[in-house]
Amino acid sequence: MRGDEDDDGDDGEDRAPEEDRGVPEVADPRDGDDRPGDDRADAACVHEQPCREAAFIRERRLDRTRYLLENTRIPLSDIAVMCGFGELSTFSRAFRRSSGVAPSQHRRAARERAASLSPAVA
């Protein structure tokens, strides 16, 4: 064995180009079984994802509105804008659809609950 040779047994000829090293191969999802209906299932997933994301965002916005209604005295129109609703009517409709009551009724009920839980001041 000479000191100027690599002893790893790799002559370098089978190496991948620099940009390809370390990138695992990914199977093509179209390979394999082509059962009828797969295209429809794939299309449904593609179309459902934006709907799920929109519903998630809407629910987080409504969660924020509930918090603000219950814990602040910020006017409803300001809450609507703060939480990303373009108009008070859009906010009110979305809130009513989600919770079954108008935002003002929710705020009133939350205040009544808070007042009934706090100790009476003599």
What this model shows, in words?
It is a single chain. The protein has helices spanning 38-71, 76-82, 88-99, 103-117. 56% of the residues lie in helices and 0% in strands. The protein has a domain at 40-117: Arc Repressor Mutant, subunit A. With 122 residues, it is mostly helical. Mean pLDDT is 75; it is low at 16-24 and 26-37. The N and C termini lie far apart (98 Å). It has four helices and no strands. InterPro entries: AraC_XylS_family_regulators, Homeodomain-like_sf, HTH_AraC, HTH_AraC-typ_CS, Tscrpt_reg_AraC-type_HTH.
Give the topology:
Blueprint: H1 38-71, H2 76-82, H3 88-99, H4 103-117
Helix pairs in contact: 2-3
Biased composition (Basic and acidic residues): 14-42
Region (Disordered): 1-45, 97-122
Biased composition (Acidic residues): 1-13
Features:
elongated; 122 residues
Please outline what is shown here.
The protein is an all-alpha fold. Helix content is 56%, strand content 0%. It has a domain at 40-117: Homeodomain-like (Arc Repressor Mutant, subunit A), CATH 1.10.10.
Parts with pLDDT < 50 across at least 5 consecutive residues: 16-24, 26-37
Residues in helix, %: 55-70%
User: Can you tell me the CATH topology of the domain at 40-117?
Assistant: Arc Repressor Mutant, subunit A
Query: Biggest sheet, open or closed, and with what strands and sense?
Result: none
Structural class: mainly alpha
The value of Rg in angstroms is 30 Å
The chain-level mean pLDDT equals: 75
CATH class descriptor name of the domain at 40-117:
Mainly Alpha
- Which of globular, elongated, flat, extended, rod-shaped describes the shape? elongated
H/E topology pattern: HHHH
CA-to-CA gap between the ends?
Answer: 98 Å
Number of beta-strand segments: 0
Gross CATH architecture of the domain at 40-117: Orthogonal Bundle
At the fourth level of CATH, the homologous superfamily of the domain at 40-117 is Homeodomain-like
